[in-house]
Amino acid sequence: MTPAETATETPAEPTAKPNAESPTESATETEDEPVFNFPRLSTVPCSACTFSPERQRCCSYDSHVKIFYEAGDRATWALGSDWILKDLGPRHANAEALNACFVKENTTIPVPTIIADHKDSGHTLTLMTRIPGEPLNVAWPKLTDSEKEKIAEQTAEYLLQLRALQSDCIKGVGDHPTYSHWLYEEDGQANAPCPFFTSDEETWNGLARRLNPAVPEKARRRLRSYMPPVEPFTFTHNDLTHVNIMVKDGELTGIIDWEGAGYYPVWWQYTSNIITLEGEDDAQWKRLLRKYMPKIDGAYWFWVYYYFLCRKDLESGPAKKFLDQCDESEDSEGEATERED
């Protein structure tokens, strides 16, 4: 059989002509069946949890794991209502677990209970219990003046327990170094580990590294004379901003964020409550807290002048006032010398 005969013996399927009253299949798809056009949401994943709006739309999952605080390369996650996970990046030396356990063992200060502490790819992950209540910065506008006074008094009373914990040098728990960009910096590195200073002179030399290079030597000597004695080195929280005070029903429920705690000059806790970058509410809180803290002679003005002499602008505020006083003092001394001669 030739190819031509084969082709003749295999006829093609007859093609049905569409009936005008019966729609074709393609017409049925577009006219009879509903078309669902869901708007597509962003598929860009969250940098923290990798979930995306589009993935969330496609399921009914409602996460109870949420970031509620972030700053720099660190963040704090709420794991439900009872646990907290702190994630600190490699720029932060973290002694949170060590310090919190130390305070819990040696005082009655309400602090979080550490559940686990783990290092992963340069990050420190600390799992802890959540202190009941809300941060003081959230509660502040809702509190009465008497409640604010009470919380400040309660906090100061707890801090007295820390003053009994002392050392012969500046250091952290377990002989770890402390980190404070005010106390010590090295080659422009503000988060350098602080040496174990043991004296007034060593502490001053560390502080002097931060002074504006334009501050003259006579002003440095005068400021050094203002510095109170550093001993005894006392265990200090080091960051009592209103964000780290937990309250409920007008009462203190806990003090959190112990990562920067350690043994510091005896006046360090007081002076660290003088300056704030957290706004007027925190300034009010710190003024109130200082009211109930033990006073250290000369500490207030020493720190105010030191702080402003570290800044770039020396032509205004306390920095200018201090430098002018130095000039006037030098002139007075010169006149006295001339009269004596």
Q: Care to give the gist of this entry?
A:
This protein has 341 residues and is an alpha+beta fold. It has helices spanning 3-9, 25-31, 53-57, 96-106, 136-139, 145-162, 200-208, 217-226, 268-271, 280-292, 299-309, 317-340; strands spanning 65-71, 74-79, 83-88, 114-120, 123-129, 134-135, 166-167, 233-236, 245-248, 251-255, 262-264. It is built from twelve helices and eleven strands.
List keywords for this structure.
five-stranded antiparallel sheet; alpha+beta; AGP_Transferase; disordered N terminus; Aminoglycoside 3'-phosphotransferase, Chain: A, domain 2; transferase; disordered C terminus
Structural shape: globular
**Order of strands across the main sheet:** 1-2-3-5-4
**Helix coverage percent:** 25-40%
Q: Tell me what portion of residues adopts beta-strand conformation.
A: 15-25%
- Structural class by secondary-structure content: alpha+beta
Order of helices and strands: HHHEEEHEEEHHEHHEEEEHHHH
Instruction: Give the second-level CATH assignment, the architecture of the domain at 133-332.
Output: Alpha-Beta Complex
Parts with pLDDT < 50 across at least 5 consecutive residues: 1-28, 333-341
What is the residue-mean pLDDT, rounded to a whole number? 85
Reading off the top of the CATH hierarchy, the class of the domain at 133-332 is best stated as Alpha Beta
What's the number of helices? 12
Number of strands: 11
- Please give the alpha-carbon distance between the first and last residues: 142 Å
CATH topology of the domain at 133-332: Aminoglycoside 3'-phosphotransferase, Chain: A, domain 2
The major β-sheet equals: 5 strands, antiparallel
Question: What's the gyration radius in Å?
Answer: 33 Å
GO molecular function: kinase activity
Keywords: Kinase, Transferase
Domain Aminoglycoside phosphotransferase: 106-268
Region (Disordered): 1-35
